[in-house]
Amino acid sequence: MAIATVNPATGETLKTFDPLNAGEIEDHLVRAEQAFQEHRTTTFGYRSERLLAAADLLEADLDSISRTMTTEMGKPLAQARAEAKKCVKTMRWYAHHAEELLADEHPDPADVTDSGAARAVVRYRPLGTVLAVMPWNFPLWQVVRFAAPALMAGNTGLLKHASNVPQTALYIEELFRRAGFAEGCFQTLLIGARAVEDILRDPRIAAATLTGSEPAGRSVASIAGDEVKKTVLELGGSDPYVVLPSADLDKAASVAVTARVQNNGQSCIAAKRFIVHTDVYDDFAARFTERMSALTVGDPMDEHTDVGPLASEQGRSDLEELVDDAVHRGATALCGGRRPPEHPAGWFYEPTVLSGIDPAMRIHHEEAFGPVASLYRVADLDEAVTVANDSPFGLSSNAWTRDPDEQARLARDLQAGGVFFNGMTASHPGLPFGGAKRSGYGRELSGHGIKEFCNMTTLWYGPES
Ligand code: NAP
Questions:
Q1: Domain count of the chain?
Q2: Which residues form the Aldehyde dehydrogenase domain (predicted)?
């Protein structure tokens, strides 16, 4: 894929970039390794000062970087601003919490004396340079939620960002440099996906984190496995959104719209499969469809736009194929199901609600990465759980019920990295984020995320120490 900024609202190529050559990649690796040897010895206070400076700089740049994101991948401008604000908050969160999260642990001496130790300490040390392969859909957030904890832990980072967000990728490198992190602590590599393998195999790379599609995750994980390097994978999702009779139906329908179409429907944790109890199905379907039909599709720079274009022409074709396959096999489009005729340029697609989904349809098992919702009618809680779990993915899940017994059952049985009750899935710096099944493994954010790229070291002190 060419490394270029192509405006998805118009299809116009605005800027192209040459990928780095082998010599330039080598220079980046040398700088990353040198920077790690220095950075790993710095104090939490030193790192925190710089991360807080990065947060302040990003806050000052909020408007311009939001416009860059919207130009490169088409999310509505207000959502780009919200994304940048969340990055500021997360940088500050890790700047304030990392030292405490990675503090030495002191096992009770009574528990370890039979190992011969007078005492023992568990210390979290950095691993080295981490290669981050990132997607375009939250072009700032995906990187910051890796970079903030990685830098605070004393690691250095190399970013291979998606080829369609090069200006955002370069901005992030510059941001950390301006904030005072030493040369080489965080670098952007403008490279295509094919260049990843050699870099990942390089001994100067300690570990990798990938957020993206399942094929990309499988490829990076198998190379890293071959090299015995740690990976974290955040892959696709097709999150269930279960609605049961005790729910506040109007609220459930209203939140369902946001949960499905935020980021133009291109969010891994978007609710994609709406599984509704038969007693409230017709009511929910009517309210949800009415709201989906009323959304304003258009220029993402316009403050009144709810849904902008898909990020790429290929992404729209993939989505169209899923919808066409479902309709061909008997699903009904309650709204949408086509390109909006009033937006012939750019890669727009109408918010769409499909009913009558069955397991023979591709959309039942595949991720719909765009503003397309699948509706399921279920007879009871058992069937809701069965349908919710009938997916290769297990990223997050949503459940609307005010019944504590139903909540307990869903908390126990939904196969996902999160269960959000009476609300929609959202990431937060203080809560672990990640998936089960083919949605990946490992966790980002919170104390769990920062420890993923640490060498948990046992320090054992004999009686003479
Ligand atoms: P993608 O094609 O997998 O791209 C993601 C990144 O991986 C890009 O930097 C891409 O580079 C690179 N890449 C692609 N194939 C690769 C390979 N074989 N080896 C190494 N790198 C490779 O994914 P996408 O379509 O851009 O993003 C959408 C997907 O990401 C969806 O499935 C979505 O659910 C998932 N996602 C998951 C999360 C989460 O937290 N779980 C968050 C956001 C998105 P190029 O751009 O150069 O191809």
A1: 2
A2: 3-458
Residue pair 190/17 in contact (Cβ under 8 Å)? The answer is yes
pLDDT above 90 (res 1): no
pLDDT digits (tens, 9 = 90+) for 376-428: 999 999 999 999 999 999 999 999 999 999 999 999 999 999 999 999 999 99
| pTM, two decimal places | 0.97
Q: What pLDDT is recorded for position 68?
A: 98
CA-wise closest residue to 213 among 104, 93, 315 = 315
Same domain for 27 and 163, yes or no, is yes
Any domain includes 433: no
Q: Fill in the amino acid letter for 138.
A: F
The residue from 268, 350, 367, 454 that is catalytic is 268
Please give the backbone phi and psi of residue 411, each rounded to the nearest 5 degrees, phi first: -65, -30
Residues 231 and 248 in one domain: no
The string of pLDDT tens digits covering residues 295-318 is 999 999 999 999 999 999 999 999
The helix (run of H) or strand (run of E) holding residue 440 is: strand 440-441
**Quick one: 193 and 270 in the same domain?**
no
Task: Report yes or no on 220 lying in a domain.
Answer: yes
Between the alpha carbon of residue 56 and those of residues 175, 187, 265, 386, 398, the distances in Å are: 10, 20, 30, 47, 34
Same domain for 142 and 217?
A: yes
User: Tell me, what's the pLDDT at 113?
Assistant: 87
Containing structural domain, residue 249 = 239-428
Q: What is the Å distance from ligand 1's center to 216 Cα?
A: 6
Ligand 1 atom nearest 164 alpha carbon: 46
Residues with CB under 6 Å of ligand 1 are: 1, 133-137, 142, 160-163, 192-193, 196, 211-213, 216, 219-220, 234-237, 268, 367, 369, 395, 435, 439-440
Same domain, 281 and 177: no
Q: Nearest C-alpha to atom 2 of ligand 1 is from which residue?
A: 213
Same domain? 29 vs 47: yes
